[in-house]
Design goal:
393 residues, Rossmann fold, 5-stranded antiparallel sheet, 16 helices, 16 strands, 23% strand
């Protein structure tokens, strides 16, 4: 990141900077922790290991320590915080699935709890209230926020928090903006050679450095090129091997039902388009995006888009069916969002929020919905008029 970009990201008032001095010190401690691991590894660690530490290191990582991650006082906002209509529309799809499945919901990464509160409330209104609602959450402070919000919003005592997913689950699984924060490997094509990007430490500072890629990453890049053609010289992007492994594991958790995976991403041919030559890695700090993951680690969210072709392939190879794939806008429209908006009290703010969910320039096209599962009868409502599953091949 340039120095000018850094200055644009600095807090506007000194009081804010002073309030965050402790957080900056925590980031410094995380840099020391990362540097120690780099030294122990011989002077270099792959980027996916750095991302794991930066986001999830106990007591120091972004999701393990930083308060106020989500919402107007955090670093980013998700669809459930933008408008309650997101959860209400999604509930229509869940209610349809509940016609054929046990009324059990499992949510990964529940954020502020807004989606869980909205789903429970709308499902109860539809007469399809869940018999159980389980949350798998890695962030201790977000878990605390969720407990307070759900207690206030629903009074639901049937919500429970799990340290690990249940086995032989039957019902509906929801993962909203979960795959994009799983660590990714970074690669660069230099001529006919694949290099892996990683992190070194020099004089207390972190910097990116390249090394020859290992067999697993080389094979992954070769599979990408087999689908999209040779990548240009100098092309840099990422591979979500952790997200792919998570999807394969999902098949072991899900005995019968559907998993709705909602995230930023593309089919492979769009993801690895020659013009997208710098990948999709992005950081978020106080609702501002930047591209330097080494700046203040532990204080920035780090994300990468999802290769939905790879996720669909992993699901199929693990024994799941692809039940639908479409844009968030088309999914929400098929689930009745416009009808919900029309029946709601007239409110320009609510209309503007709904437009953010649907607009191609905002979240409507950038986010996609992929449904995978097994043992579920009939087509899913959310993919009735805009299924793009054919684009995943």
């Amino acid at each position: 990141m340039s120095e000018a970009a850094r200055r644009r990201l600095e807090p506007a008032d000194p009081g804010s900077a002073l309030a965050e001095s402790g957080a900056t010190a925590d980031s410094g401690r995380l840099v020391i922790r990362i540097s120690e691991e780099i030294d122990a590894a011989g002077g270099w660690i792959p980027f996916d290991r750095f991302m794991q530490l930066a986001l999830y290191e106990p007591g120091l990582g972004y999701y393990a320590a930083k308060p106020a991650k989500i919402g107007p006082h955090g670093d980013f906002v998700t669809a459930p915080e933008i408008s309650p209509l997101f959860a209400r529309a999604l509930a229509a799809q869940v209610a349809q699935a509940f016609e054929h499945l046990p009324r059990q919901l499992l949510e990964f990464g529940a954020g502020s709890g807004a989606l869980a509160a909205g789903l429970i409330g709308e499902l109860e209104r539809l007469g399809a209230g869940p018999q159980s609602y389980s949350i798998v959450e890695v962030s201790a402070d977000l878990k605390a926020v969720q407990r307070v919000r759900l207690r206030q919003a629903t009074g639901a005592t049937r919500v429970r928090w799990l340290d690990a997913p249940p086995t032989d689950f039957e019902g509906v699984i929801v993962a909203n903006e979960v795959l994009d924060v799983m660590p990714v490997k970074l690669f660069a094509r230099r001529g006919a050679v694949t290099l892996e990007l990683g992190v070194q430490a020099e004089g207390g500072a972190l910097r990116m450095a390249e090394r020859p890629a290992g067999a697993q990453l080389c094979e992954a890049v070769a599979r990408i090129e087999a689908d999209v053609g040779p990548l240009p010289d100098g092309y840099v992007s990422e591979v979500g091997l952790v997200a792919q492994a998570w999807t394969a594991t999902l098949a072991r958790w899900l005995r019968r039902g559907v998993a709705l995976l909602i995230d930023y991403g593309f089919p492979r041919r769009e993801y690895y388009h020659p013009q997208r030559a710098m990948g999709t890695l992005m950081c978020h700090f106080r609702h501002r995006a930047h591209d330097d993951p080494l700046w203040l680690p532990g204080l920035n969210d780090i994300t990468a888009h999802v290769d939905f072709t790879a996720i669909a392939q992993c699901a199929r190879e693990a024994g799941l069916e692809v039940l639908g794939y479409t844009s968030q806008a088309r999914f929400l429209l098929d689930c009745g969002l416009l009808e919900l908006l029309r029946d709601a009290p007239a409110d320009p703010t609510s209309s503007a929020a709904a437009l953010r969910l649907l607009s191609e320039a905002e979240m409507g096209e950038l986010l996609k919905v992929l449904a995978v599962g097994r043992g579920l009868q009939g087509p899913l409502r959310g993919f009735a008029s805009g299924d793009r599953s054919h684009r995943l091949t």
